[in-house]
Amino acid sequence: MKLTLFAASGRTGAHVLHQALAAGHDVTAVVRNPDAVTAPVRIVRADLAAAETAVLKSAMDGCDAVISALGPRHHGEYGVASRGTRAIVHAMTAAGVRRLVVVSVAGISTIPTPSRPNPPKRDPGVGFFTRTVLSPLAKLRLQKHYEDVALMEHELRVSGLDWTSVQLPLLTDKPATGHYRIAYEQSVRGGFRIARADAAHFVLRAVGMPETVRHSVAVAY
Ligand SMILES: NC(=O)c1ccc[n+]([C@@H]2O[C@H](COP(=O)([O-])OP(=O)(O)OC[C@H]3O[C@@H](n4cnc5c(N)ncnc54)[C@H](OP(=O)(O)O)[C@@H]3O)[C@@H](O)[C@H]2O)c1
Q: Ranges for the NAD(P)-binding domain (predicted)?
């Protein structure tokens, strides 16, 4: 397949890049710092906080699918997930590319967005302890990021594209296992972690899974 990968320099994006190349895919990597990618791939430079549609479109002309592992490196970059994804969607529409798989966050489906002003109050995959203790603690620190990622999923929902959001729990840098569970439109029950390498494995798998189109799919151990 011909793939265009956004944020190939990130910790999850790098796994996606290397696994895609190992599987024989033709990858164009879109990054803001080309020096961060040493793999022998075509590189397009773009800052997704202020990207030009023409530049993004040039990175995806003729590709079969677009993958994004975009996210903020620090607090000051909150907002980049929704803004960058909106730019990716515009460029895909201009380029006539339909398939998009993006990395997202588990548990954000209960956050209201313009396209889901009344989301479900409870995530059926989240147990009592997580709902009452862990999630409120995480929200204290990451609320702005969660709101940005929820807005990113809103951009997907109104895009008209064949999107999938891969919702991730706590990420680790352990080796890939190839064994994980998935859940549609809810968190994986009792699934608190996944290695970035396994998250990348599922992201690539999801590209070829039509049953994941227009769904949020959580992945965890
Ligand atoms: N960390 C967790 O435990 C966790 C849990 C659940 C979900 N997630 C989700 O998974 C995402 C990916 O996680 P990760 O650990 O792989 O993230 P990461 O290593 O911080 O990678 C973020 C990527 O986004 C890129 N990026 C950020 N701002 C950009 C901009 N303005 N223009 C172009 N590229 C930009 C970064 O580029 P540079 O290399 O140039 O900085 C990098 O490639 C997170 O953002 C989060 O939404 C994370």
A: 8-208
